[in-house]
Design brief:
This protein has about 290 residues and is an all-alpha fold. It is built from ten helices and two strands. Strand 1 and strand 2 form a beta hairpin. The chain is elongated, with a radius of gyration of 29 Å. InterPro entries: Peptidase_S54_rhomboid_dom, Rhomboid-like_sf, Rhomboid_protease_S54.
């Protein structure tokens, strides 16, 4: 009687997780069919999917946007809170290092004058918007309160990037008005140019939405009157309002569609170019007092 050699049994390959080859898994992703360990499993409508498939699907999902093209976000207005925190931090530094901060960040037309011997420091047109008067606590208190009230509404509506662009353009526009209409040694500080830009931004948004604008018009009117009180730079306020209105119109009146973002940013870029031209023109007109 002869006995044959036992046949060799085929060895089936043990399924392992692609991300963790040391882990055996008999559960497979419903989308790609690969084995997926418990750590890499994500619950799906039917069964589970691997973490890679979930990430790929998330990348392919369209970004939900507001009527003005801003990405829909949840939670706190990050940009608004960051600006407030920055202003408060610089305000504290103004008390700790008053000479250093004021000397390097305050704006006056003489810092953008095309006059030999004078420093040319155009960045002050923006940095001055983050300083406030140390002699009047109400100055920073009002600006930060207004920034919070308007920012938490407008930032999620416009989108974070467009909101900060509009805000900075408004500050710049306020400084340009000081350059064109103020005295050469008229130093200015404060976020009022940016805040007044938010005032007119809300006005433009409400007009575009055909909402009642009486409330914001009253607020703007009151603040225009206050702007002409002694010690207040009405030029920065008016310049910020006008620039904010232009920037808001460039955002709000662009129809929705695939070109919305491109056209909005083109409009904001156009306003920036206009401010560059006005800055150059104003700097060439500044003269020393006789």
């Amino acid at each position: 009687m002869s006995y044959g050699m036992p046949a060799e049994q085929p060895q089936s390959e043990v399924p392992v997780c692609p991300r963790h080859p040391d882990r055996i898994s008999y559960v497979r992703c419903q989308r790609c069919g690969r084995p997926t360990c418990p750590e890499c499993q994500r619950t799906a409508a039917v069964g589970v999917q691997c973490v890679d498939c979930v990430k790929e699907q998330a990348r392919n999902l369209p970004t939900h946007r507001t009527a003005y093209g801003g990405a829909v976000t949840t939670g706190r207005p990050v940009v608004t809170l960051t600006i407030i925190a920055l202003c408060v931090a610089i305000y504290i530094l103004q008390w700790v290092l008053p000479g250093v901060v004021q000397a390097n960040l305050v704006y006056a037309p003489l810092y953008t004058a095309q006059i030999p011997g004078l420093p040319f420091e155009p960045w002050r047109m923006i940095t001055a918007g983050f300083l406030h008067s140390t002699g009047l606590l109400l100055h920073i208190a009002f600006n930060m309160y207004a920034l919070w009230i308007f920012g938490q509404h407008l930032e999620p509506l416009l989108g974070r990037l467009k909101f900060v662009a509009l805000y900075l353009l408004s500050i710049w526009g306020g400084s340009v008005a000081v350059l064109l209409l103020g005295e050469i040694n008229q130093g200015v500080v404060g976020a009022s140019g940016g805040v007044f830009g938010l005032f007119t931004t809300l006005l433009i948004v409400q007009l575009q939405r055909k909402q009642d604008v009486r409330g914001i018009l009253v607020l703007i009117g009151i603040n225009i009157v206050i702007s002409f009180f002694p010690g207040i730079s009405w030029q920065a306020h008016i310049g910020g309002m006008v620039t904010g209105a232009l920037a808001a119109a460039a955002i709000a009146f662009v129809p929705r569609g695939e070109n919305q973002q491109r056209l909005q940013w083109a409009g904001l870029a156009g306003i920036a170019v206009l401010l560059v031209v006005l800055t150059w023109l104003g700097s060439s007109l500044v003269t020393l007092p006789q």
